[in-house]
């Protein structure tokens, strides 16, 4: 099972999280949430999304994917490590978050990791052939990023979210036949506003419960259950996955 190193609740933590048996992702995160660096904290929804990605590996084959609000990158790194998607863009906009996201990408796919874990020489690891990049993206600004087949993310809607800008970004990034997958807490503010605005963009919405133990189980060793409850205090709440597809007559705005 996963192991955990805790220097201080106020300092970045190095974690190894178990997504499924034998499938781990390494992340550095700050367990105590600080306003202004929300992306440096690992949220419950990101763990649920990462496990949903793993359980639905067939959906990603050959796909070009962009993750919005990647934060620590747990779900995006899971996608890179355990699926055969074509490419992944891990996006966020805070400088500290982007720096940490690049760190997490490197410890999972950098040359030293591949030499140690994949028995591969530097620069030649076939297991890390997915094109995965960290990109700055502010939803409130126009972007030159290419369109993708799938957009996904977690905890994208909260108090203060520029919801209209989020919907515009999803609409702009998705190809005409693309699909988006968003995991949100059911109690989160502005969810209804988001669903109404994305429908106005011409998207159909399907909702799926994310409350199965398959998604919510402790990602640490059994003896670290108490730490899991500290790190993920809202895991007892209800969560949903929203799948967004364009209606047949919808056009990109």
Which secondary structure elements does this structure contain, and how are they paired or packed?
Blueprint: E1 4-5, E2 12-20, E3 23-30, H1 44-55, E4 64-68, H2 74-82, E5 87-92, H3 95-109, H4 111-117, E6 131-136, E7 148-154, H5 163-173, E8 174-185, H6 191-200, E9 203-209, H7 213-216, H8 225-231, E10 239-246
Parallel strand pairs: 4-5, 4-7, 5-6, 7-8
Antiparallel strand pairs: 1-2, 2-3, 8-10, 9-10
SSE order in H/E notation?
EEEHEHEHHEEHEHEHHE
In whole angstroms, the N-to-C terminal distance is 46 Å
What is the residue-mean pLDDT, rounded to a whole number? 87
Number of helices: 8
Quick one: how many beta strands? 10
- Report the helical percentage: 25-40%
Spatial order of the strands in the main sheet? 6-5-4-7-8-10-9
Helix vs. strand class: alpha/beta
Anisotropy-based shape: globular
Question: Beta fraction of the residues?
Answer: 25-35%
Gyration radius, in Å: 17 Å
Low-confidence stretches: none
Task: Offer a quick outline of the entry.
The chain is α/β, with parallel strands linked by helices.
